[in-house]
Structures are given as C-alpha cells and as structure tokens.
Design brief:
The protein is an alpha/beta fold. The protein has 15 helices and 13 strands.
Length: 426
C-alpha cells in the first residue's frame, strides 16, 4: 500500500520534530514521504533521510532572531498569526502546491493554513495533527490562557464561562482569518466553513485529527472535533547521544537539576541562566545548563564538579538522570520530562507553554514560576518545595511509567494507514 504522503509542519523544533519522526516511520513502512516546511528546518529533515520541500515563510529565522513582539505573553498569538504567518499565505500556497499535487494524503499542522486550502482544491484527503490540547478550545477541559487568566477559576461552574468567551474569540479570529477567506475566494472555493483558526477538520476532505499527546496529559472531550484519536506523545529522535563530558559529569555526584529554556524561548533576552546559577549556589546542588545555540549566556567561571554547561544535549537521555527539570513548558520537553518520570519547575512565557504548565501542576508533578518573575530567590524557593516534598517525585515516577509504555509514532502511523485504506476502498 505504497502512498505518497506530504507532511506540512510549521513552527519551532518542538513542532517540526514530531512530524519528522512520523515521516521517518512512514518512509520505513514503504511510503513515499515529503516534509514541506520552512527552510530553516531543511537539515533536520534531510538528516532523517526524508525528501524536503521549501515552504515560506522561513520561521524561525536562520539567525535565530525573533521579532520582539512575539514575546508579549498576551499578544504573542496575534503577532505570530497576523504578522508572521498570514502575510505569507499565498507564498505558502505556491510553495506547497508542487509537492501536494500528486499526494495521496496531506498531514497538516494547525498553523499550516495553506494545507486545508490545497486539500480542498486538489480533492486530496488530509489529516490534522494537533500537538497541544489547548488548540482544541474545549469548554469542558478549557486551556489556561494568559489573556483570560481571570476566567480559569470559573471553570468549576460549568462550561458556560468558556462557551461565552469562545464565541467572542471566534468573532475576533474570523477577522484575523480574512487572508484565508480572501485566498479561498480567489481560487473559487468560497469562504471557509466555520473558523479556520479554531476549527480543525471542518472540511469535506478531512479524514480526522490525531491528538499527539498522552491521555495522562489530557483526555478526550466530547467537544473536540470528530473524529479525533489520541496517539500518545510523538517522541523526536535527535540522533545524538550524550557527550562524553556529560556522561562523566553524571557519574561523579548526586543527580543534578537540569535547566533549559528549549529551542525558541532560549532566544528571549533574560537573566534566566544567571539567576539559575545563583539558585544552584544557594541550594548547594549540582546542575546541568542547556543554553541553546542562540542564548550564549555570560556566566562566571563555574566549578566543573558542580555545574555542566552545554548548548545542547538530547533531552530524552538527559532528563532521566535529573533530580528535577526546570524548563519553559514547550510540549516536546514537557512530554520528555513526563516520560522520564522527573518532577518539574515550569517557567512558561507564551503560546501553549502556560497551559502545559498548569496541566502538569494539576497532575501533581510540577510547580509553576512565570519566566517574567523568575529570580534567584524565587527559583530557590520553588525548587526547595519541589525537592523536599517526595510526593512530586513519586507521582512523576508513577505517571512516567505509564507514559513510557506508549508509542505515539506507531499509533499515528497505523491510524494514517487505516484512514488511507478506508479512503481507498470507499
């Protein structure tokens, strides 16, 4: 059942790497696979042995620089959609058209806005992959959104508070989506049914949605788009092993606290690593700092037996050795910390990070400290609470043992093949 499949991820490494993992698995099952995404991700796609197709805009930029407006927690989504993605919608459509023209299936990311348009125009079936539960805009299991933080405690009164807010949000986002409606009209498709920025799968060519996270993290809800299938987390494979220096460091003392801001948040100007170093000194613990290639923090000379610093080490192999993980809350690193069974201090800033942080806090495996209020005394206080209460580690180990048994890549591939087989026989 060899099929031509095009995957269209958008965003940072945390968004793109799960798609690359699925693409690699589909290719190993005999399919002809292309990953169509921003040029900045070309190397990681081709290193996996997958055909790459360039799609504008190139974001994140090759220099690692992010527009300043992207890091306003209350306006980052609007800035990203209206200033970075939608102005290039026709460019994205033009770039996606050649690889999609002969595809048997398109597998899209929620912010790959040109993909559903092409699927409808070409009469090609497509599947949406959603990596974060907040993107379902559920009224039953509502996300924590900084703009509506006052609303979150009201969820105990039922669905009506969020139902009212989502109606308002739909009206606002429909105005944001005008470039999508405009391109559709230009192509003779008419305006989209529903709201293309909130409604996934509202298309005659959509076969369904894959929710690529664990049931331990978020359970299926009746108001999710139908049909939707939970796959479990889709683990990225960096293809790298621990450096010799880190392996040696881990064998020479107590389990360290791992500090990282991930791929995109590490580019935010911040005193995060300097404050973290001071917290480590106050606590007298060992630490691993994974700074990212763009952060390049200015840190004093460090005692090598206490602190290890690197731009990158594979999270999947580092986190199991940690006493705790301090991270920004991107879905990829959150999933890996959960699988490793490690307690977390989450320092969210924008997008889905705040909702992810509140979910793991409700699970009893994490504490939350906003990055904007992160200082050495605050970090020291939160880490003391995290490490002195054994309940966090015990709960993290229980949940981690269950998540470790999931295989999101395999489940996603089987579902995609089943949908293709059903489509082919209809």
């Amino acid at each position: 059942m060899r099929k031509r499949i095009v995957l269209t991820p958008r965003g940072s490494d945390g968004d793109v790497c799960p798609f690359v993992s699925i693409a690699s698995a589909l290719a190993s099952r005999g399919h002809e696979v292309t990953v169509a995404t921003a040029p900045v991700h070309q190397n990681k796609v081709e290193r996996a042995g997958i055909r790459f197709a360039r799609v504008r805009p190139d974001f994140p930029t090759p220099t690692g620089l992010y527009p300043e407006g992207l890091f306003d927690p209350k306006r980052s989504l609007e800035f990203f959609v209206r200033r970075i993605l939608l102005p290039y919608l026709e460019d994205s459509y033009t770039d996606l058209l050649p690889p999609c023209r002969d595809a048997d299936l398109i597998v899209s990311h929620p912010i790959s806005f040109a993909a559903p348009i092409l699927a409808e125009q070409l009469r090609t079936p497509w599947v949406s992959i959603v990596l974060q539960p907040m993107l379902f805009f559920s009224t039953i299991d509502p996300p924590y959104i900084p703009t509506f933080s006052w609303l979150y405690p009201l969820r105990r009164f039922g669905t009506w508070p969020y139902a009212a807010v989502w109606r308002l949000q739909r009206a606002v986002l429909r105005r944001w989506a005008e470039p999508i409606h405009s391109l559709r009209r230009k192509l003779g498709l008419g305006s989209a049914s529903g709201n293309p920025l909130m409604d996934y799968g509202q298309s005659p060519m959509c076969l369904g949605t894959l929710a690529a996270f664990s049931r331990e993290f978020a359970r299926e809800q009746p108001d999710w788009p139908q049909p939707t299938w939970l796959t479990g987390f889709v683990w990225p494979d960096s293809g790298r092993t621990l450096s010799r220096g880190l392996r040696d460091f881990l064998t020479k003392g107590a389990a360290p606290i791992v500090f990282t801001l991930g791929d995109s948040t590490a580019r935010v100007p911040s005193e995060f690593f300097a404050w973290s170093l001071e917290a480590v000194r106050r606590l007298g613990c060992r630490a691993v700092f994974l700074t990212g290639s763009a952060a390049k923090p200015s840190l004093p000379e460090l005692p090598v037996e206490q602190v290890f610093v690197a731009e990158f080490e594979p999270y999947a192999q580092v986190f199991p050795h940690a006493a705790a993980v301090v991270l920004s809350g991107g879905i990829g690193s959150i999933g890996l910390a959960l699988r490793a069974g490690r307690p977390m201090l989450v320092t969210p800033l924008f997008f889905d990070q705040t909702d992810n942080a509140h979910r793991v806090r409700r699970m009893g495996v994490a504490r939350v400290l906003e990055l904007a209020t992160y200082t050495a005394p605050a970090a020291c206080r939160e880490l003391q609470q995290l490490l002195s209460n054994p309940g966090y580690a015990q709960q993290a180990e229980r949940i981690g043992s269950r998540i470790a048994g999931e295989n999101g890549v395999e489940t996603a591939c089987r579902r995609i093949e089943a949908l293709l087989a059903t489509r082919g026989s209809s």
